[in-house]
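PROTOCOL LOG
Step 1. Enter all chains and additional molecules of the complex.
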Amino acid sequence: MLKKELQISTCEDLLNHFPYKYIDRTRFYKIREVEPDLPYVQVIARLTHIDIVGDKRAKRLVAQVMDDTGVMELVWFQGIKWVEKMLSVGKAYILFGKPGFFNGKAQVAHPEMELYSTGALQRKGNATLQPAYSSTEKLKQFSLDSKGIQKLLSTLLEQATNDISENLPLYIINHFRLVQRVDAYKNIHFPADATNLNEAIYRLKFEELFLLQLKLLKNKLLHNQKFKGQIFTSVGDLFNQFYHHKLPFALTGAQKKVLKEIRQDTQRGVQMNRLLQGDVGSGKTVVALMSMLIAIDNGFQTCIMAPTEILANQHYQTIKELVGDDFIEVGLLTGSTSAKARKKLHERLETGELKILIGTHALIEDKVQYKNLGFVVIDEQHRFGVEQRARLWRKNIIPPHVLVMTATPIPRTLAMTLYGDLDISVIDELPAGRKPIQTVHYYESHRLRMFGFMKQEIAKGRQVYVVYPLIQESATLDLKNLMDGTDIMAREFPLPQYRISIVHGKLKAAEKQFEMNRFIKGETQIMVATTVIEVGVNIPNASVMVVENAERFGLSQLHQLRGRVGRGADQSFCILMSHEKLSHDGRIRLNTMVKTNNGFEIAETDLQLRGPGNLEGTQQSGILDLKVANIVTDQELLITVRNYVQHIFEKDPQLSQPENQILNQSLQSKNEGLAWNKIS
Ligand code: ADP
Ligand code: MG
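Step 2. Run joint prediction.
Step 3. Record the structure below.
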C-alpha cells in the first residue's frame, strides 16, 4: 500500500521519504491567538471540565481548558474511555494539535496531551523540530498518517544504522565538512536542533547534486570514448569562398568563438554533441551554415531539422539567400513536399549529390537515406524527442556531429543539469548596430495610444505583428480572442489604406504560408496571429510587436515573441497589452520584459517564478526530480559541485585511484532512471 500511495517500496525509499516540514515545538500559543487556519498550535492550559456527550452511536468527549486569555474546547471521538481516565480536571497540560472552529469557538480535536511540568517544558524546548510527513487519505485509514510514518521511520532508523553506508570518499567529506551519511539520515528525520537539521540537509543536497554531476560527466567521458566521430581534416574552398565573398557582414566575436569550438570538436575524432544557446537574433543560423560548409568541404552531407514547416521554410529561405545562386544546392523536405519532388530528393541524397537538406522531422523517416551524413543541425531542441534525435544519428555507421540550437536560453545551472553531458556554446553578443528593442507595458485604457503608435510606424513603412493567446473564445477565460481582435483591427485600420494578414493554428499549412507570404512581401502591414509565429520567423521590416493579453503568456514565450522584431536596422518596439488587474507573477513577468532584453536574465527570472520542473522542455526529463536539492535555491552549491566533479575527473578520469573506488560503487547504485541523457 505504501508503494501504491507514495511509491515507497523499499526501506531505502522510506528513508528517502523526507519530512516536508518540521513543526516547531518551541512555540507556545495563547488561547486568544488560536485560529482555525493555523496548521497546529501548542498551548499550555488548565483543564477545567470534561463531559461525555451524545448518544451511544455518536459519543464524544468534550473537555474545556483555559489560560489567562480565554477558554477553548478539546474533543475526542475515539478512545473516549481511555482519554477520560488519563485526564484530570484541575491540572495544567501542554496540548498540541490542529485547531478548528466548532459552533463559533476554537476547538482542537484529538490533541496530544502531556501533563505540564518544568521538566516537560524543557524537553519540549529542546526536542524542538518534529518531522511532518506527507501521507494520503488511504494511508491515514491504516494509521499511516504523518505520526504513523514517523514511527515507522524511527524504528527503521534504529535497525538500519549499519546499512546506511557512506558513499562519498573521506577526502570529500573532509573538504566540504560534511556530516556522515548515516547521521544525515537520522537528523533529517529527527533533528535535535536547527543546526543539526541544516547540516543534514546540506549533506544530502551535496550528495544528490554530486552524484548527479558525477554521472553526467562520466557519461560525457564515456560518450567520447565510445562514439567515434568523423574527422573534418581541413577547412576547404566552400567555406573560404563563402567567408570571403558571400558573408554580408563581419561575424561577431561570439560567433567566431563558437565556430572555433565547433572546428575543434570536429577534428578530434569524437562525435560532437554540442548545444548552441543564443538569444533570438544572435546569429546562430550563420554559424550553423558555416559549420555545415566545413563538413561539405570534407565530403559529407548535412541537414537542418526544424520543428515546424514554417520554420523549415524560413531556414530554407535564409540559407538560400546567404549562399546565393550557383554556390551550392539546398534541398527542402517537409510534409508538403510533393511525392515526385520527394522521390527526387531521396535519390539525390542516396547518391550523395545533395549536400544540404533542410526540413522537418520528415528528414528522419526511414525512407530518407543519406550517402554520408556528417553534420546535423537541430533547431529548437526541446520540441524534438530524444528518440527522434537518436534516429538521425543512426543514419550513419559513424554518427554525424550534432549541433543543437536553442533560442530559449537556459540558466547556466539548469543547463548544467539538463544538458550536463553535452558541451555548451553560448552566443552572448548581438551583431553590432542592433538597437535594443524598446518595450512598454500598456493597460487596456491606453489602447487608443497603442493604435496611434501603430499608425505612426506603419506610416513610416514599417510592419506590425499583433499576437493573441487564443483562437477561440473561451467562456471561462476573459480573453479577447483573435477573431474579435481582428474585427476591431479591421475597423481601426480600414482598407484600402491598411491590409491585414491573419495566421493561426486552425489554418491549413498552405493557407498559413499564403498569409505569411503576403506579409513577408510587404503586401500587408499588419499580421494578426496566434503564437504560431513564435519561433524563428524573420521579417526585418516588421518592427512592432504588440502582444494582447500579455499577462497570459509565460516569460520565455514573451521573449520569443519579442524576438520577432528588432531584426532590421530600424528601431523596434514591443507593446505588452494587459488588463488592469494583474497577478503577482504576471506583474513580475511584464516588468521583467520592460526592464531587460537579455534572454538569460529572463530565463533566470522564469526559473525563479516557475521552478525548474515547469520550464519549457524540462517537464518530461525527470532529471530534475531532485529530492532535497533545488536547482533554483541551490545554484551556488550546484556550481561548486560541478566544478569539483570536473576537477576529480581531470585528476582521475577512470576513477581508478583507490580513494575514488567508493564513487564507482555509488554510481552503480544510482544507475537507474537517467538513461535518457545518453542519447542527447
Ligand atoms: P538566430 O537564429 O540566432 O535567432 P539568425 O541567425 O536568424 O539569429 O540571425 C538574425 C539576423 O541577423 C539574420 O538576418 C542574420 O543574417 C543577421 N546576422 C547574423 N549574424 C550577424 C552579424 N555578425 N552581423 C550582422 N548581422 C548578422
Ligand atoms: Mg534562428
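Step 4. Note key features.
The first strand starts at residue 21 and ends at 24.
The CA atoms of residues 144 and 151 lie 9 Å apart.
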